[in-house]
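Ticket #194: bound-state structure for heme C.
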Amino acid sequence: MNDDNKTTPSDPLLLNHEYDGIRELDYPLPGWWLTTFFITIIFGIIYWIHYDLSGAGPTLSQELEKDMAQIESLRNKAAADAPQVTEEALAALVQNSDAVTKGQAEYMAKCAACHGNAGEGLIGPNLTDKYWKNTDGTLVGMHKIVVHGVVEKGMPAWKGLIPDNLIKNVAAYIHSLQGSNPPNAKGAEGTLYE
Ligand code: HEC
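RESOLUTION: The complex was predicted; output attached.
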């Protein structure tokens, strides 16, 4: 062991003490490391004051609420922007022979089994008379019943099974059957709507 080093360190970083021959080098942490370290402390304090102490910052559930409200408003907007099914729009389809023909083809494929090839009624009610069980005989009402069905009574809901536009055509086709008096017509069911 060199006794000189004990009192007068030659290396400027070497500290002036010794423990059982072990000497300490004063080697400061690098500036970039310390800077980062202090920044994290300052950030932590500001964060704590902002979110915890003052309650100014939004909590996670408040942020979720805000996002959900935004989604909800977008949904409402989309629903409001969607083309409305009106009596006039459907009445225009009744006059459109192309739409009615398409509606007829879909009717034959999906509805005739229960309502008869001519709408005279089979398992389901007669669609050619003025008596209705679930609707008031308007085109909008007809459209609605085809979209939502009367599931508990055996009338399927067709939304998603038939494209939206085609459902309108089918409603127009059914409307065109009004008063057609097909053979073997099923008796009146429901209420008379003139
Ligand atoms: C599985 C059999 C079945 C099929 C397929 C079916 N329906 Fe029906 N539908 C019914 C039954 C049963 C009712 C009567 C429900 C009730 O008793 O309230 C009905 C009721 C209706 C009504 C209302 C009648 C009224 O008096 O209020 C309309 C309109 C109608 N169906 C249209 C259609 C159209 C259009 C299709 C094809 C896209 C279709 N249905 C396919 C069984 C069927």
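RESOLUTION NOTES: The chain has two domains: 1-82, 87-192.
TICKET STATUS: resolved
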